[in-house]
Amino acid sequence: MSTTHERGLSVRGVSKRFGATQALHSIDLDVRPGEVVALLGENGAGKSTLSNIIAGVFGSDTGRMTWDGQEYAPAAPRDALDAGIALIHQEMRLLPDLSISENVFVGRQLMKGGRLDRKEMDRRTAEVLHRLGLDISPRRLVGSLRVAAQQQVEIAKALTLNARLLILDEPTAALGAEETEHLFAQVDALRAQGVSFVYVSHRLEEIARICDRVVVLRDGQGVASHDTAQVPVRRLVEDMVGRSIESVFPDLTPPTSEVALQVDGLTAADGSFRDISLTVNRGEILGIAGIVGAGRTELVRAIAGADPVARGTVTVDGRTLRPGDTRSAIAAGLVLVPEDRKAQGVVLDMSIADNVALANLDSVSDGAGFIAPARVARIAREACRTMTVKGRVDQPARTLSGGNQQKVVIAKWLERKPRVVILDEPTRGIDVGARAAIYDVIVGLAAQGIAVVVVSSELEEVLGLSHRVMVLARGTDRGVLDRTEATDVAVMHLAAV
């Protein structure tokens, strides 16, 4: 008769090499029924490689696995799914031109009488979306959803699989506090039914809330294992990076009294926000906080000219921008680092150099209007050096870690010597080491006299980086707090009004 331990997942001595890179070195991992095990580590630590091996995406070079007390060696993801193991990728793999229910049941459509049973697919999808706190039509096209809602659709797919082991890779990266709690409630309900989880996250404050144990990888090796999740965040950070972290957020320098960005009475064409006014001085960092759906992303996209407005003005250094015109904004020195770097920030199949060049065609072309490759390479090398991007300038952006991709997005805009920089979710899905580097960049921009606006779903990030914090709720300005009065309690009180 199998023991409880045998009925879970056991990984022993698993290693994996990709060319000259040893991605995993003899990894051991146990996941028992009804248990949530946190798998932590910086980008490149081996978390995704181990997750992919367990999920059958590719095989290991050495080692063995057992599942339910039986040998387990999936040759493909279908083998893992048939065994009851599912991986929910951090990078969303949805089909934008299909409905939510079609995405949820893609590859396993429900049939009735030889025909597609859309009614039942819609019913089951609506049920699981409701459990996640997303009450929208299952027939809505996925391409019309914001990033947070798309992430919930990915999670809904997992919940309909009836898997007994779910590997969740950054499941809350795009979610706000309310959506995260809905997900945690589902995890708690499923673990009570014996469902197990491997939980990969860079949000270390979540670990104590949802996990039972913690395993930490560094450079492809298991470096720490904690029998409880009640581990101080500082200790987990030190496990992950191999050194002491004295301060995550750099010290801020005082801003000037000169206004760089002024927004007056801005109202969205789609009604997502209304009558927003704000100013940001040179050298100031303004944080924008609020729960998902508050209109934060819609606001900064409108300020940058990416979305249309019904009324209101945006002024940079006294120059009023043409509404809904990104070229006008960029020409005035206002740039936006978008929330979805893979879809909107970088062209994944292009090199680092070409990505930098896209935002700086006027600088990389010769007098006749042709692109000068030598100039592209030179500007890209300088941009990468400034942003400490780890990679060759001829390397495809797809091959970079999330942190380095984000650095490329920031680097290409900094080449334009902007006066105002807006960053929407600047550290989403990025490990703690890369976060610290990006925080240094953000504070460094302000120290140079650039006006900075930061939108983040992570309240600690907004509070740690900002001179002032604007709180949005349901598309309206609920108040602006100075750094001395901006606490998590004060911000959430305004956000929940």
Automatic annotation (TrEMBL):
Residue intervals of the ABC transporter domain: 9-244, 254-493
A Pfam match: ABC_tran
Any GO molecular function: ATP binding
Domain of life, per lineage: Bacteria
InterPro entries: AAA+_ATPase, ABC_carbohydrate_import_ATPase, ABC_transporter-like_ATP-bd, ABC_transporter-like_CS, P-loop_NTPase
Keyword terms: ATP-binding, Nucleotide-binding, Repeat, Transport
The name this protein goes by in its record: Sugar ABC transporter ATP-binding protein
Organism: Kineococcus gynurae
